Amino acid sequence: MDQWLRNTNVVKILALIIGILLWAVVHMEDNTLPGSMTNGVKEEQISNVAVTPKYDNSQFYVQTIEPSEVIVTLSGKEAVLKKAMISKYSVELDLTGQGKGEHIVPLTPIGFPSGVTVKISPSSAKVIIDEKSNKQMPVTINVTGIPAVGLKAGQPIAKPNKVTVTLPSGIIESVESVRADVNVEKASSAVSNKARLVAYDKSGKVMESATINPAVVDFEVPITSPFTTVPLQLKLLGEPPRGFSVASLVQNVDKVTVFGTQDVLNRMEFYEGPSINLSDLKEEKEYTFNLDIPLRNKATQLDPVKVEVKINIVASNTKSLDQIPLSIVGQNDGFDTKVVFPETGKISLAAEGAPAIIDKVKAQDVQAILDVSNLPPGKHEIAVSWNLPTFIKKSTPQEFKASVEISAKSTDVAKR
């Protein structure tokens, strides 16, 4: 062995073999690192990295980005790669210099540490940009739920009652309403709070891309007794003295809102207001009355509670209305009723009224009525009752009478 080592040729051969082995070992270690490259450089790949657009969102709207996600490949020393993987990185699409329309814009890596080579695939993205438009819309408060028994939700109030909706110009006209849903289930008093607004299109779908300013409004929903609005009917008693008539009657309230139980309101067609005795109006002038509207028929509240009435009294004119036919009411189907006096079955009336009203009245505007209800067969003298136009009266207090004859219908007529 010593002899071999003293031989210079053997030593040279051994040195050559050892050098070759060392070279092989070094290169074999490098190749055993996965994803590695020469000189200690590694490579890592990150999939599904979202593309983040940079733009003025108060003026523009990004309609589409293709692709919306990319693959990022990093290369560098292992220590630097580990640092890169935990950093707050992003892939940015800088649109600050772009306007409305379609563009292809390069992608930029942001937030990666120095010493790392970043490759983005694909390296650019196609984007469609639209301008934003504003539209002022009324606020709708949609009331849901049923208040406590016997109560009713009133008209909701929103503050502010109008807001500004911002949307891409291409769909701004699609917005149909801006509303908030408010629940008043079992509420016994006014419901007030704040509500978030949502924009809806014409098909009732939520417009997710809409910006609403302000996004939240204050609201109040009154909770009251059930109510209905019906005509206000004054109760007129008597009539002015002879020689005077009503020329006009004007009330400043024609309708009244009545609060009460629902069963009472369902039967109400009008509301009887205060009474006025026309027989007390004895002068030719305009009378003004400020009257309280009384609570009647189980009503619990009224709105308004007062009415102003102006009545103009003038000197009367008279007019003779002739050939007024006598009308029979209350006749039994099994009997015939015939007017025997006056023989013509017609009557005349001297009527009185304000000149502007009486001049327009005709005989056909007046009804002379004979009520034969519950009368047996035979001849009867009956008082005539009159149905006269408003503010027309008899010029004399005389009583009008007529005679009728009631007889049973014949059997043949009855059968037919």
TrEMBL record:
Gene3D superfamilies annotated for this entry? 2.170.120.30, YbbR-like domain (2.170.120.40)
* UniProt feature coiled coil, ranges: none
Superkingdom, natural source: Bacteria
Q: What is this protein called?
A: YbbR domain-containing protein
Its source organism is Paenibacillus agricola
